[in-house]
Request: fold
Amino acid sequence: MPFLLLSPSQAPQPIASVDDDLVRTQHGPAVIITATEAAASLTSTDDSTATGFPPEGRPVAFREAGGDWTEVGFEVADHWMQMGPGLHIRLAEDHLATFDVAEFKQATNGGSASIITNNWVYSGQPRIYRVAGQLRDFVTVLGQLSRP
Reply:
């Protein structure tokens, strides 16, 4: 399965595996996603990451600046894939963005509004949700990549 390495001020870089030399030399912030046809088309020689960000693809790993690589858990990856582009953009712009019940259900594949995992917190009435845990860590790093 082909992957893409997302890093600051660069177009997504195709990599063969998560053990690729390019991955080992990237000190972060950085993200690895599976390469989809749409995301792979963004790997041009121009250094613009603004168009089509964040690219489509299942998250595999992320690295905070100066940190170690963190493998993305299946629940985080599933929730990210179920969110859709509109929610991806909101979270890349603001990792503290709030979700209403309908958006939470979209992200959790219809999960009960009363269930909470390590990746979600809620408050208020009606409930307002925010990402937490590893999902928040992932979108925080992803958001850093979207800023100049």
Q: What stands out?
A: Residues 3-146 form one domain.
